[in-house]
Specification:
The chain has 13 helices and twelve strands. The protein is α/β, with parallel strands linked by helices. The longest helix is centred in the last third of the chain and has 20 residues.
Length: 337
């Protein structure tokens, strides 16, 4: 095999209606960059396990020393982890692109230790934010990390023009967003809520419009509202619970959706994406959802319009896969690195 760059294909071809689409897009971008897909067959039973083991050993034999294998992280199939371990011993360079750190997200120390053990295989990491980079480098000081920033989202940039109003959009995995139950306590804001695992009773709230999950590529054009909300946890008072804690390290995929939609963002001041939002002038930060009415009231029409204009070049870059491409090319495992 003369190809020097590969990616472990774990998600491509699978249908997703929420965050998983970000993983399929990452693999698609790697493919466009010239990374060749390799995968292990799925299935259960002894024959399937034997077939996976045979294919794993074939790939380990074929992928040459000095090649690079990129993979989304976490890597849960045990045979895939075993293959990466064998490749590492052979002298193949491993690049992990962090999708999630589940042990940190779920406040599960045992799982976190296991994940950090797998991450030690890496010659380089691509991470969400500077905060995640700092957190990881305290635990894995020998592994260099490149910051991704916004997740790329291979969907068309919406052409519709947004106007300022007190309408706020929230899209995501609703079953993990306990704070949604408290939104009726903010009657001055009308919330447009999109996603799976709809919250029982929320559709009866007078200040909430609830919609089913949309096809990801159509999302930027169809979501309603003037502002895109990033929030996590169980409370509207403050970020709370493990997901609220986790938010300080990550760059939410929904923020890329809002940018493509031309919808200025409102994010927690402690979130990992807050610095990007402030630096680029594409939204505002809050400490509590109770601050939403006053914040939106204070934003002038001109300020709102200027934020939407600043989003346009960022949206084009997100739609084109530019952030992942730059992070990979600037990593030490790149042929350019």
């Amino acid at each position: 095999m003369s190809i020097a760059s590969f990616y472990l294909q774990l998600f491509s071809g699978n249908p997703y209606r929420h965050g998983g689409v970000g993983y399929t897009d990452i693999e698609a971008i790697l493919g466009k960059m010239g990374y060749f897909p390799v995968s292990l067959p799925s299935g259960s039973g002894l024959f399937s396990k034997w077939h996976r083991w045979k294919e794993m050993n074939r790939l380990v034999y074929l992928i040459p020393p000095g090649a690079t294998v990129a993979s989304l992280f976490p890597v849960y199939p045990r045979m895939s982890v075993a293959m990466l371990q064998k490749l590492k011993r052979k002298g193949v360079r491993i690049l992990f692109i962090i999708g999630d750190i589940d042990g940190l997200k779920d406040n599960d120390p045992a799982l976190l230790e296991k994940e950090l053990g797998v991450m030690k295989l890496a010659d380089a990491l691509v991470v969400h934010t500077e905060e995640m980079k700092t957190w990881l480098q305290r635990r894995l000081p020998a592994v260099p990390a490149q910051v991704l920033g916004p997740f790329d989202f291979l969907a068309p940039v919406a052409e519709r023009k947004r106007e300022k109003s007190h309408q706020v959009c929230f899209a995501g995995n609703l079953g993990k967003s306990g704070f949604l139950n408290e939104l009726p306590a903010i009657p001055a804001i009308h919330f447009h809520i999109y996603g799976e695992d709809l919250v029982p009773g929320l559709s009866n709230a007078p200040n909430c419009s609830v919609y089913p999950a949309f096809e990801p590529k159509e999302g930027p054009a169809v979501i309603e509202g003037s502002f895109g909300l990033v929030w996590d946890g169980d409370s509207i008072e403050t970020l709370s619970g493990p997901l609220g804690e986790y938010a300080q390290y990550i760059f939410h995929h929904k923020l890329s959706l809002y940018i493509l939609a031309g919808m200025p963002a409102i994010v927690p001041a402690s979130a990992g994406s807050a610095g990007f939002v402030r630096e680029k002038g594409i939204g505002w930060t809050i400490d509590s959802l109770h601050q939403l009415p006053a914040l939106i009231q204070q934003v002038s029409t001109d300020e709102y319009r200027e934020a939407t204009e600043r989003m346009k070049p960022i949206a084009e870059a997100i739609s084109d896969g530019a952030h992942l491409r730059a992070a990979v090319l600037n990593s030490p495992v790149s042929s350019r690195g």
